[in-house]
Amino acid sequence: CTDDLDQSNPNSDTLLSADRVYSNPESYIQLVAKLYAGLATTGQATTGAADISQIDEGESQYIRGYWLMQELTTDEAIIGWNDGTIKDFHYQTWTSGDRFINATFNRLDFQVKNCNEFLRQTTQEKMDARGLSGDIQSEIQTYRAEARFLRALSYYHFIDLFGSVGLVTEDSPTDFFLPEQVSRQQLFDFVEAELLATMEDLPEVGAIEYPRADKGAAWMLLANVYLNAEVYTGNPRYTDAMTYTQKVINAGYSLHDNYEELFLADNDQNGAQNEFIFAVAFDGINTQTYGGTTFLTHAPVGGSMDPDNFGINGGWAGIRTTSALVNKFQIGEDSREQFYTDGQTLEIEDVSSFTDGYAISKWKNVDVEGNPGKDQTGDFVDTDFPIYRLADAYLMYAEIFLRGGGGTQADALNYVNLVRQRAFNDNNHNISGNDFNLNFILDERARELHWEAHRRTDLIRFNKFTGGTYIWPWKGNVANGAPTPSFRDLFPIPSNSLAGNPNLTQNPGY
Amino acid sequence: SVSETATGLPVPGVNVIIKGTSTGTITDFDGNYILQNVANGDVVVFSFLGFATKEIPYTGQATIDVSLEEDAATLDEIVLIGYGSVKKKDATGSVSTISPEEFNKGAVVAADQLIQGKVAGIQVINGGGSPGEGAQIRIRSGSSLNANNDPLYVIDGVPVDSGGIEGGRNPLATINQNDIESINILKDASATAIYGVRASNGVVIVTTKRGKSGELKISYNSTYSYSTINKTVDALTPVQFREYVNANGNEAQIGLIGDSNTNWQDLIYRDAFGTDQSVSATGGKDFYNYRVSTGFANYAGILKRDNFQRTTMSAALTFRFLDDHLRFDINNNNSIIESNYSNRGAIGSAIAFDPTQPVYVDDQTYGGYFRWTNPNNNRLNTLAPANPLALINQTDNYGKAFRSIGNLQTEYKMHFLPELKAVLNLGYDMLSGRSYGGEQLEFVSINADGERSPSSYNNVQNKENRLLDAYLNYNKYFEGSGTNIDLTGGYNYQDFRYPTTFFTDDGNGVIVEVSNETRLNLQSYFARLNLTQSDKYLLTLSIRRDGTSRFTEENRWGNFPAAAIGWKVNEENFLKGSDIVSNLKFRGSWGITGQQEVGDIYPSLPLYQTGTNTVAYQFGNQFVQTIRPQPYNTNLVWEETETYNAGIDFGFFDERVTGAIDAYERTTTDLLVFTNNPQGVGFSNADDYNIGTLENRGLEIAADVYPFRNDNLTWRLGGNITFQESKITELTLIEDPDYTGLDIGGIGGATGNTIQNHQVGYAPYSFFVFEQAYGADGRPLDGVYVDRNQDGIVNEADKYRYRKPASDVYYGINTDLNYANWNFNMSWRGSWGNYNYNNVDSRLGYGDALLIFDTYVTNGVENLLETNFTQAQYQSDYYIQDASFVKLDNASIGYTFDSFLNDSNSLTITATGQNLLIISDYSGIDPETYGIDNNLYPRPMNFVLGFNFNF
C-alpha cells in the first residue's frame, strides 16, 4: 500500500515523466520547439498554463516585454494605460519593484533555464544511454546549436538591459543553489565565445526551414554584440562588428520591395521573409498569445481608427508616439511614415488619453490583399516579428564605417541609399557624403526601425537615452521633457530576484 | 418497560445493563425488555442517547418500569472527535457543536449557511447571491499563505474532497441540509491533530441523521421562497450620462448618444422563486434501524436565467448483531445538481453599458439586440461591452454535477474483552461534473463574408476518492482507581484521482482538447489516549504520522503530536452542589498539525508538460507542439502549524448561563509559499518553497443565556464574538529590507493589476496602495499621490500597506423565544475592522473610462461625479473603504400544531425573512466580500414559508 505514495509516473497524457520524454525520439523536436516558442507564446495553453507567474500572462510574453523596455522608454512610444507601473517606462521613473521589468527579467531567465536543461539532457553520454539512433542524434546536434544560439540571445538581452546577472549554464548544479553574479564583461565574453563556437554547428543561411536560426542569425547577433561592446565593456569592437555585418550582408538576404508589407499578416511568405535574418513567428490559430504582434497590432488602435483595417476585433487604445519621432520624417513622402492623425493631436497633453499624440499603423493583421489573418475572431494575429532584418544590417554597416570599424564610404552610402530608395520609392532622396554622419544614422534608424525594439539600445550607444543631450515629450515625466539621471541606462535587477539571491548586487542608483 | 417521561411513549433501543458487568440487553420495539440473572443488590442502569441515565437498585422486583427524561443539556453532550466521540463535559479540546435547532433557517442549501454567525472562531463569507453559491470558510483565520486555507470536511466519517467540481456549485450543497443531524467544529490542535493531514485549518464534521428503531415515521419538509434584489450599483442615470458625455466627449462620442433611457441593471435582474421539498422515513427493529430520504430543490437566481436544481437521495442503515457486539453502519448520500449559471458577465456589463441605447433594434443581424459595431460595416467590435441582455439570452452556460459519498463502518466489540473494539471504515467520495455551453449563432459577429462561427465548450471532470480506516479502541473504567482509559490506534489510507477533459471549440476550427489524470495518495498511522481521573482530571495525548505523495520519499513523512489537559472544577468538593456554578472546566492544549495541500499535485516531481495545439511553433510548413519542463522542488516538506489553546467552559445557575472562552495562538512555520526561484535556478520564475512564518492570535467568547426557562416560555439569548490578528513574520530566504513582498489580489479594469501584498510585519493580504492627495476642499486630486518617501518623484517606491480585508472582530447574536406552540428567532451578524477595495468605483469612476474610443462609449458610476477623476487611479487608497457591518441575517416565526389531523401527527409552519437589513457605511452594494468588491452577484432579500409535517 505504501507504494501508492510514490506517484512519480503519473498516468497522464499532458504530464510526462522524464523517462517518458527522453526515451521517445519524437520528443526532442518538441523540446526545441519550446525553446523557440518561449519567444512567442506564454505557456502550454493560450492562457492558463503560464511559463511565468506573478504577472498577467500576456504581459509575460518575450517580445511584448522586451518591446516595452526598448520602445516605451524612448521618443518612439508612449502608452496611456493604467496597467500598474507601465507609464513609468516613458517617464523613466521605474523602480526595482516594477512588475514589467520583473516579468521580462524572468522571461529571459526562463529561456536560459530551458536551454540549459535541453543541453544537459542531450549530451552524447545521455543520448547513447537512451539508445537514440544515429539519425536522431545528428538532428539533436543541430538542435543543441540552436539552443546555444537562443541562450546567447537571451544572455545578450540581459547584458543590454540589466548589465550583469548570474551566469548559469548546463554545467551548473541542478539542485537548489545561489548563483554568483559575474561582471558585465564576463557575461559579454561568454556570449561572444558561445556564438563563435555555435555558429559552426548551425546550418548555412537558407539551408534550414523558416524561422529557425541559422549561421546568419548568429552572425547578426554577434555583430550587434560587437557594435555595442563599447557600452557594455568600455572596449570598442567595431572592426569585429564590421566582419560579421559583412558576412550577413553577403549571405543572400534581399530587401523586400515594399516597406509596409514587412509588418503584415503574411510577412512569412509575401517576400518579406527574404529580408528577415531572424524572426519570431506568430500564428492566429497555432501560435496564440496576447503578447507579441497581437499586442503590437491591438495596443496602438483606438480613437477613430477602424479595427477592420488592422484585421482585429477591436483596439486596446494604448500606444502612440511623440512629436519627436514625427518630426524626423518627411511627412507624405517617406513610406515608412504610417502616422494616423485623424482625431489625434501631435502634442500630448494627457498621457492617458489615446487621442493625444499621433497613432502609428505599422503592425497589421491583414495580408497584402487586405484580408484579415487566420483567426476569425480577430483576437490573435499572424504577423511575424523580425528581430533582425537586412535593412538593419545595412544601417549598421554605415554606422560602423563612421565609427572607424572599416569598410568603404561608397558601400556605406550605397547600403543607406538602398534603404532610402525603398522608403521613398525613388532616387531623389538619396543622401550624399555631406549629410552622412552619425546623427543622420541615428535618425535614419528611427525612421527605418521604429517600433521594432531597437530604439533604447541605439539611443544609449549615441549617449542620448538619459541625461539632457536629447529630450522628448514626457521624458522625465514633464510634458516638454526633462533630463534624467544616467544610471537609468541600465534597468534595476528586480527586487524579487534580489530577495531570492543575496549574491546579486543592485545596479548603482537604484 | 421503558417510556419517555414527557410523552409516555415507549423508548426502543435503550441499553439496560447490570452495573459493573457486561450483562445486559436492549429494549425492544415497544420499550419492553427482559433481563435475566439479576441478583439482589445489583444496580440496573438504563441509558439512551439524549436521555438522562437512570440507575435502579434491584431488590427483587418482578418488573422495573422506568420513565426516562429527555435532557436537553445531554443531547449536546456527545461531541465527535476524530475516530470516536467524547462527552462534551470530558472534552479537552476546543470543539463546538451545532444542532438543527440552532441552524439558520430559510432558503438554505448548504451546511456552511446553516452555521454562519453561530460559532465563535469560524467565519463564513458566501461568494454572492446566486443559489448554491460557494463560500469561504475560515476557522481561526487561515494558517497558510499559498497552501489551502479551507477546513477539512468530514461527512459521516469520510474526509471529503474540499474543492468543487466542474459544473458544480458549492461542494457543501451536495448534502441535503435537512439530512444533517449535527455539525461539529474542531478548532484547536488537540482536537484536530488526530486528523493530522489536511487538518491545519480546523475540521468540520458533518453528521447526517440516523434512524430510530420503532414504527415507521415520516417527516416531510416543504419550503417556498421568494427573492428580490436589495440594491444595485449606482451607475450614472441616462440624464447624468448625457450631461457628462456632452460636457467631456468629442464630437464623435457625442454623436453616439442614443435616445433611449435604459436601466440595464433593472433588466438583468428579476424577482425569483424557489422551492425545496424533502421527505424522510425512519424505522427499524431491535437489531436494525434505517433512515432514507429524498429531496428536491429548485431555486431561481435573481439574475435572469440563473437556476439551481438539486435532487438528493440518502440512506443510513445500522445493523446490530451478536448482542450488540457487531455493528454495521452504512451511509450513502447522493446528489445531482443541475445549473444554469446564466452569464455573469452581464453584471458588470449592465453597469458599464451606455444607458442611452435601446435594448432592441430593428436590424435582426444580432437577434434584434443593440450591439456596438464597426463604423464601416455591421461587424461587431467584440472588445466593446456586449449588450447585457444578449449576454444572458444568447450565451449558454450549463452545469451538471453528481456526487456520491458513502461508507460502511464495521465495529466489533471483542467477546472475550468487550472493552476492546475493532473498527473498519471503508468509504468513498465520487464526484463527476460537466460544464458546457457556448455562444448562440446570433450572438457572434458576422465576418467579412457575412458568416459566423460561435464557440462552444465542454469540460468534464471526475474525482474519485477512496478511504480506508482501520483502528482499535480500548475503553475501560477502573473502579478502584477511578481511572477511565480510552485508547485508540489505527491506520488511514486515502487515495484521490482526478481525471479531467477540457474541450473548447472557438468556432473557427481551433479545437483544444486536453485530457489529464492526476493522483494524490495520503497514508497515516495514528494513536490517541484519553485519560480521565476521578471524573475531574482529563488528559488527551495523540500522535499521528502522515505520508503524502506530494513530497519526495525522504520528505514524505511528518509526525504531528498533540497534548491537552482539562480540570473539571465543578466536580471538586468545594463546588459540588453549588447553586451558582453548575459547570466549570479549565482546558489547555498544545499541538502541531501539518499542511501539504499546495495547489500542485506533483510539486516535488520532475515532470514535463505538453502544450496545446494553439501554442505550437512554426518549423517551416508544420507547427510543432511543445514540451516544457515543469518547476519542482525536491526539498519540500510539511508546513507545520503549532497551536496553543487555553479555554474555560462554564455554566451557572443550573445551566441558565453557559458558555466558553478560548484564547489561541498559532504559529505556522516552513510556510509553503509560492515565491521566486533565484535567477538561473529551477524552472519558471517561481516555485513552492518552505519559507516563512505566519502568526495568528485570537480570543473567542461564546455564551447562551436563558432569561426565562419554564414549561411555557423559553427565551434564549446567544452570542459569540471573535477577536483575531494575523501577521507574517518571515517571508524570504534572506532578510532584505528592499524586498517589496509578494503581490496578490488581482483587480478588474486594467490588465494584470494587483492590490494586495504579503509582507513581513503585516497582516496577509494587506492592501498595497498609493496615498491619495487631497485638495483644500477635501476632494481627492486627480492623479496626485503623496510622495511618501520624499525623493521628489512619485513612483512604485511610494506605495504603502494600508488596511486589510480580514476583520479584527466578528460576532453573531441570536435569540429564540418559545411560547407555547409559538417559536420566534432572529440572527444578527457583524464584523469590524475589515476593509474592501471598491473595484466597481475604481474601474468605472473616472472620465477616461467612459470616453476611450470614438466608436463606442461606456457608462460610469456616480462616484465619478464626486471625485471628478479623469484618469484611472487603481492603486489609490481612496478606494480602500471601511466595510464593517451589522446584518440581520434572518428572522423567523413559527407555529406548531401538535395534533394535526390526528394525535400522532404534527405540523410546523415557519415564515422566515433572510438578509433583511445591512447597516454599514460602505458605499458599494454589499460590504461582505473577500476584500475586493468587483461585480458581486447581489445577495437578495428572501422571504420563505416552510412546512414541516411529522407522521
Note down, in words, how this protein is organized.
- The complex is a heterodimer of chains A (510) and B (951).
- Helices cover 39% and strands 4% of the residues of chain A.
- Chain A has 510 residues and is mainly α.
- Chain A has a domain at 22-201 and 488-510: Serine Threonine Protein Phosphatase 5, Tetratricopeptide repeat.
- In chain A, the strands form 3 sheets. Chain A has a two-stranded antiparallel sheet. In chain A, strands 3-7 form a two-stranded antiparallel ribbon.
- Chain A is globular and about 75 Å long.
- The mean pLDDT of chain A is 96.
- Chain B is mainly β and 951 residues long.
- Helix content of chain B is 6%, strand content 48%.
- Strand 1 of chain A pairs antiparallel with strand 29 of chain B, so a sheet runs across the interface.
Query: Which spans of chain A of ≥5 residues are poorly predicted at pLDDT below 50?
Result: none
The CATH topology of the domain at 22-201 and 488-510 in chain A comes to Serine Threonine Protein Phosphatase 5, Tetratricopeptide repeat
The SS-based structural class of chain A is mainly alpha
User: How many extended strands of chain B?
Assistant: 52
- Based on secondary structure, the structural category of chain B is mainly beta
Rg calculated over all Cα atoms of chain B: 31 Å
Task: State the shape of chain B.
Answer: globular
Average of the residue pLDDT scores of chain A:
96
| CATH class term of the domain at 22-201 and 488-510 in chain A | Mainly Alpha
Helix content of chain A: 25-40%
CATH class category name of the largest domain in chain B: Mainly Beta
The CATH architecture classification of the domain at 22-201 and 488-510 in chain A is Alpha Horseshoe
Oligomerization state: heterodimer
Tally the helices of chain A: what do you get?
18
Approximately what portion of the residues of chain B adopt beta-strand conformation? over 45%
What percentage of amino acids of chain A are in beta strands? Answer: under 5%
Q: For the CA atoms, what is the radius of gyration of chain A?
A: 23 Å
CATH topology of the largest domain in chain B: Maltoporin, Chain A
Largest sheet of chain B: 22 strands, antiparallel, barrel
